[in-house]
Design goal:
- By secondary structure, the chain is of the alpha/beta class.
- Helix content is 29%, strand content 15%.
- Strands 2-3-4-7-8-9-10-11 form an 8-stranded parallel β-barrel. Strands 1-12-13-14-19-16-17 form a 7-stranded antiparallel sheet, with helices on both faces.
- α7 runs parallel beside α8.
- The N terminus is likely disordered.
Length: 491
């Protein structure tokens, strides 16, 4: 509570023009809700999460083959490896040849397509030895249609008006659980605990977490923390109540949607969903860069203070069903990637994103793996963003004590200029999310750049950093990032 109150006081001071921030700066994201009861692990504040699509990661699609890529991922700057479901996949009502990861046949086993439980333990140990954490995708709302529990515990499943097991929505390869059954809840918690104790993982990404009763997560977390004190929980949901007691981090679906809307307004959204008979890109409401502030402020009021938000430009759902980041975001994709690393939260990298992969992975079949070597300019780009995220306390997730964020209005609604501050660490970002060159004309004052470096600027002949000078204009998709020199940024 002390940190939360101090955060509000600092925001008020900024409004009054107290300290180094001018009155031109507009406070953004000042939390007004009560703080979460969750104590986030210290290692998570400046973390980067990476989604592993194991089936498509290598030609073999196995854990042992994946292990060879761990050093490269460490060099990329990855802190948390999120494995898409590693469990055996149901055969009954299976979609495609190999089925969906999310139709689980056995919650306490490893898909033989990938290897064995011992293989997975070895992968976890190797990741830990490199300083990375491991979380696995968990499917708590439903199971595959021939899950072992269907025979052992048929009363654990919901029934329709005909007394039949059924799947939610149009998901024909799964059956939904009945969370009104205490024994079913206990069985699910036992299965979750299994992976903490038997494989040594660090947490879970929980599929459609908002479809499961919130009180289940409130019940489960203390029991899981008893097995893993630094438990990390990611909810595939944008549901604030999940973060009072259950989850560290939310999917920022609304920000993803806003990115697409801004890109579509700029004429950059080109994805056509031909699988569903569409012949042209979908229509979006007109949105602009300046709408980002409104969303951040709304979430600061809705979510418990210190909730983490996962920022992304792609993931497995988006890539396979809604288009690649290039199809959805066009020439603004790198600018949005910069925002995913510098807006409040934790950035996600999806399999192949660091190579500039511009094709959709098959979801129910084996597909061609990305080409990991030689590393290209995309790897360098994300690696550099990773260094920025790791070295600047100002970019910590949540609402750590003393953290501040300000935006600087300009004459263009396509420009977004903001600053994040924590202690001596400062990061200023300017992006053009429009479709034409925009002059940077501040309506009041500009952010101070003295003592900062141009993070993406070309170094001088002696290796020195480029000076921090706000450009007079930005082309569409162009960005500028200024930061405190790393030797002075620790608080």
């Amino acid at each position: 509570m002390k940190n939360f109150i101090k955060r509000i006081v600092l925001g008020v001071n900024a409004i009054l023009g107290i300290g180094i921030i001018s009155q031109a700066a507009v406070p953004v994201g000042v939390p007004t809700a009560e703080p979460t009861a969750i104590n986030h692990a210290d290692w998570s504040r400046n973390a980067i999460i990476y989604e592993v699509n194991l089936r498509q990661y290598t030609a073999d699609g196995t854990l042992q083959a994946f292990d060879k890529e761990l050093p490269r991922l460490k060099e990329l700057g990855v802190d948390i490896l999120w494995f898409m479901p590693i469990h055996p996949i149901s055969e009954k009502n299976r979609k495609g040849t190999l089925g969906s990861y999310y139709a689980v046949r056995n919650y306490k086993a490893v898909n033989p397509e990938f290897g064995t439980l011992e293989d997975f333990r070895n992968t976890v140990k190797k990741a830990h030895d490199l300083g990375m954490k491991v979380i696995i995708d968990w499917v708590p709302n439903h199971s595959g249609c021939d899950n072992v529990w269907i025979v052992e515990h048929p009363d654990w499943y919901a029934r329709n008006e005909k007394g039949e097991m059924y799947g939610p929505y149009d998901w024909t390869d799964v059956y939904k659980f009945d969370y009104s059954n205490p024994a079913m809840r206990a069985g699910m918690i036992d299965a979750l605990r299994f992976w903490l104790t038997e494989a040594g993982i660090d947490g879970f990404r929980c599929d459609v977490a908002g479809e499961v009763p919130t009180d289940f997560w409130n019940e489960a977390r203390p029991q899981l923390v008893a097995a893993q004190p630094e438990l990390f929980m990611l909810a595939e949901a944008s549901k604030p109540e999940l973060h009072n007691y259950g989850f560290d981090m939310a999917y920022n679906w609304p920000m993803k949607d806003l990115f697409s809307e801004i890109a579509a307004t700029a004429g950059q959204y080109t994805f056509v969903d031909t699988r569903n008979g569409k012949t042209e890109p979908r229509k979006f409401p007109a949105r602009h860069a300046t709408d980002i502030d409104s969303l951040i402020n709304r979430q600061a009021a809705e979510y418990p203070a210190d909730t983490y938000m996962m920022q992304m430009i792609t993931n497995h759902d988006l890539n396979s069903w809604e288009g690649t980041e290039f199809e959805r975001l066009g020439n603004l994709s790198q600018a949005f990637a910069v925002l995913s690393y510098t807006l409040p939260g934790i950035p996600l990298i999806y399999t192949g994103q660091e190579t500039g992969l511009n094709r959709a992975f098959e979801f129910f079949e084996k597909d061609k793996a990305p080409r990991w070597e030689p590393r290209n300019e995309y790897f360098t780009f994300y690696q550099k963003l990773g260094r920025l995220k790791h070295n600047q306390p100002a970019l910590q997730a949540g609402n750590p004590e003393g953290a501040q964020m300000f935006s600087y209005p300009t004459e263009s609604r396509n420009l977004y200029v903001f600053e994040r501050i924590l202690g001596k660490s400062r990061v200023v970002v300017a992006v053009n999310l429009g479709n034409s060159e925009e002059k940077i004309v501040f309506t009041d004052g500009a952010p101070r750049l003295d003592g900062m470096i141009n993070f993406f600027g070309a170094p001088g002949p002696d290796g020195s950093h480029a000076p921090a000078v706000m450009p007079g204009s930005l082309l569409p998709g162009q960005y500028a990032v200024f930061a405190t020199p790393c030797g002075h940024c620790k608080h």
